[in-house]
């Protein structure tokens, strides 16, 4: 405990990710498993209730003592907000309204984002797709730590600090900008504007303590917090040869079953509420695999075990180039508005006027 991490490189592998082949085997043996795909009809109601509860807590805490606000943020608000980030994860797979209503899913993700206090929903979606498609691939999967993180945070005290910093605005949020800096799309801008307006509304009506409750709860629950154990438990290599791990404990009740991570990567379009059914159907494929019993123990082991650290991840050579520009889903709407008010013609007229004036 406290020694230097023994690994000095990632676990480079030249095999395809295991989820692809296992998915084919399971579907071949249990074709009816496709019945689990689709929409979770309860998701939008559960999320709406969670958003309403957080706003209610903002009202309750506006004049309370700072100590109570901090304790509530860690024990209650942080748990709810962390759950909402995982609801965004579920929505990113279009499980709220289905594959044919992509825009509705993105807009609902922006709504789900509100109590979190920091705009993450749309940006998470565009990078999470790559995490599934190119698991562990260099420069494509931004869930894998950077070389700097792996080299610098190489002892127990530094790993502990690294866990604290695993919050959206820091390493977990900045990493995509370093590894795979995609250009922002129109929905990201909308996500940002809506979130800032919501934060200002909370600040105006309920005060700084209420806004602090929301944002501090988000940050603290993404670092040293039992609910954050899934960040480490999902893909950090605790057992040689196994790349993804599941956890079937009680934290799944308030994290939208994110612990069923092996099952989720095998079948990303199965809504989270159906993942236990998936495991039950294909139990012989999942029961023999190594699984985690406690997310708190995962965090403790990560810090104290010299074999563990940011280097303890499988990595592959990139199989595709980076695509920096994303799709502007709202393009047809704002282009229609611009054309309706003749903005293109106005801009042409202005540019011609400037050219004529310069020539004179």
Automatic annotation (TrEMBL):
GO-annotated cellular components: membrane
Q: Where does this protein chiefly localize?
A: membrane
Q: Which residues form the Sphingolipid delta4-desaturase N-terminal domain?
A: 5-43
Q: Give me the segments passing through the membrane.
A: 66-87, 107-124, 160-180, 192-216
Q: How does it sit in the membrane?
A: Multi-pass membrane protein
The entry's localization annotation reads: Membrane
Q: What is its EC number?
A: 1.14.19.17
Which GO BP terms, alphabetically?
ceramide biosynthetic process
Taxonomic superkingdom:
Eukaryota
**Which InterPro entries does the record associate with it?**
DES1/DES2 (IPR011388), FA_desaturase_dom (IPR005804), Sphingolipid_d4-desaturase_N (IPR013866)
Query: Which Pfam families does the record match to this protein?
Result: FA_desaturase, Lipid_DES
Q: Keywords in UniProt for this one?
A: Lipid metabolism, Membrane, Oxidoreductase, Transmembrane, Transmembrane helix
UniProt keyword Oxidoreductase, yes or no: yes
One example of the protein's molecular function in GO is: sphingolipid delta-4 desaturase activity
PANTHER family given for it?
Answer: SPHINGOLIPID DELTA 4 DESATURASE/C-4 HYDROXYLASE PROTEIN DES2, SPHINGOLIPID DELTA(4)-DESATURASE_C4-MONOOXYGENASE-RELATED
Annotated family: Belongs to the fatty acid desaturase type 1 family. DEGS subfamily.
This chain's protein is named sphingolipid 4-desaturase
The taxonomy runs:
Eukaryota, Metazoa, Ecdysozoa, Nematoda, Chromadorea
